[in-house]
Amino acid sequence: MTEPTHDEPHGGALGARLNWLRAAVLGANDGIVSTAGLVVGVAGATDDRSALLTAGLAGLLAGSMSMAAGEYVSVSTQRDSEQAALDVEERELREEPEAELEELTELLEERGLSRDVAREAAVQLTERDALKAHARVELGIDPEALTNPWHAAGASFVAFTVGALLPLLAIVLPGADWRLPVTVVSVVVALVVTGWSSARLGGAEPGRAVLRNVGGGVLAMGVTYAAGSLLGAAGV
User: Cβ–Cβ contacts within 10 Å for residue 44, how many?
Assistant: First the structure.
């Protein structure tokens, strides 16, 4: 007989891991596009290295903090909602155990089990951990794996910062004549990678995702560079 492989990722754990990876890729992509647009726009108005560095760092810090704060608020709200649902379920289990057992039985029946098997499974699950059973079957929540808002905020901060560093370094390190070409090429290559990665993680066709990603990034840089050039020419 084949022994079960306990180390193999399954179901929710794998799905959660893919969601985190996809979020990290998209966060890095946001950092690339927003910072590239900012520094290229400033480069259209001036070739002063300190101005480019100041603008890039300001954009990096503002963007990463905004991403982290937004993710913290979003995940905190989700976690509060999940915790509230678990509290209600715990109260119902305490006050109406028979009704909750019948409810769990019916839910298992809806998943294809016969009445007798569903009842036996509901009884065993309730005896083992009633709250966990109802949370997973009825609410789709794992009470032992609620998302940590601090982890989400930290991951968003790091992902955005890593993405933003590429255009920042590309615009600051080369000489004045090479700054824009190096930045544009570096950003396009990075957007190809993030577009392909996000599509693969989401199970979508990479080709179109890459074209959309690169097209959006190039458009953003083109618009901001044109705006910066106009402002620079006007002496603003």
Answer: 21
